Amino acid sequence: MEIVVSGIRPTGNLHLGNYFGAVKSFLQLQNEYNCFFFIADWHSLTTHPHPDNIRKSVKVILAEYLACGIDPEKATIYIQSDVREVAELYLYLNMNAYLGELERVTSFKDKVRQQPDNVNAGLLTYPSLMAADIIIHKAVKVPVGKDQEQNMEMARRFARRFNTIYGVEYFPEPASFHLSEKAVKVPGLDGSGKMGKSEGNAIYLIDDEKTIRKKVMKAVTDSGPTEPDSVKPEPVANLFTMMDIVSSKETYDYFNEKYNACEIRYGDMKKQLAEDICTFCAPVRERILDIIADDDYIDKVARTGAEKAAESAAKTIREVRRIIGFRP
Ligand code: AMP
């Protein structure tokens, strides 16, 4: 079975954008590929988090992915820092990674602009750690957003370079598997653009019903169409897109017909949308809370995942050490 690897940032809670844009693809991938999903807690050290924060955010994100349906029996879900072989491969890749190419990476340049007082070597070598995460399992496919394309290009380059330097055909070049082409883009309800944590417009899976209703009722609309069948301006189109994602076809068609007949009452539409989002989120939220309360279960999942990932990683490292000229 082909190997797929994907990293998960342990930053904040999952929102509907994450769910319909990425997590849902993971649920499908775990049935079709040999998937390794890891929580990238080493990567998160570039921002110097407090130990309590790391522990808590890793636990929460793990619980949320499990609650969404990532199945530890099907996929290997693990915490990056549990698999130390990755750090060893990162070291080897760094020996053949050049300052010029690392400095040219757009996300590095962005970070330099955003946090000029903390331009650490971890930020600079983010692409080589990401490459190590991927090629340690000899992955052939990596589901990523478009923003990760440059890092993926680096991963391919580092894999290729290793093969060339040592005259081997050892690492396959990992292909990007663009989520954005397969998945829906979940809009924000604040007028324009997508839903996102940094956009401040996210509806989280963990939100309770009152919070969800409040967020949806605040959605931006307009005074309503005056011509039948008119084109929907972005804020209204976003409301309909969200309804298309979470509500039934009948519900969507009902409000769409009302809109086209210039009889739309946005208040009613928002109420219905809020109900449908609550219906979707409530069972997920309940599962998240149950899992967060069950430390034994989380520990067991993390330990089992680490064992499976370490087995695959240790095999690669044994072979890599032999190729480089170290004792396996
Ligand atoms: P982030 O929370 O920004 O780290 O996003 C993680 C992943 O979730 C991204 O790579 C996307 O695949 C997905 N994602 C985030 N926001 C959205 C959105 N509004 N619509 C669709 N997918 C999204």
Task: Tell me what you see in this structure.
The chain has two domains: 201 residues, HUPs (Rossmann fold), CATH 3.40.50; 81 residues, Orthogonal Bundle (Tyrosyl-Transfer RNA Synthetase), CATH 1.10.240. It is elongated and about 75 Å long. The mean pLDDT is 96. It contains 15 helices and five strands. With 328 residues, the chain is mainly alpha-helical. The site of adenosine monophosphate (AMP) has 14 residues, from helix 1.
Order of helices and strands: EHEHHEHHHHHEHEHHHHHH
The name of the CATH architecture of the largest domain is 3-Layer(aba) Sandwich
By DSSP, the count of extended strands is 5
Computed over alpha carbons, the radius of gyration is: 22 Å
CATH superfamily of the largest domain: HUPs
Provide the CATH topology of the largest domain. Answer: Rossmann fold
Please write out the topology.
Blueprint: E1 3-8, H1 16-32, E2 34-39, H2 41-44, H3 51-68, E3 76-79, H4 85-95, H5 99-103, H6 106-114, H7 121-124, H8 126-135, E4 141-144, H9 149-166, E5 175-178, H10 179-182, H11 209-217, H12 234-246, H13 249-260, H14 266-292, H15 295-324
Helix pairs in contact: 3-14, 4-8, 4-15, 8-9, 11-14, 12-14
The structure holds adenosine monophosphate.
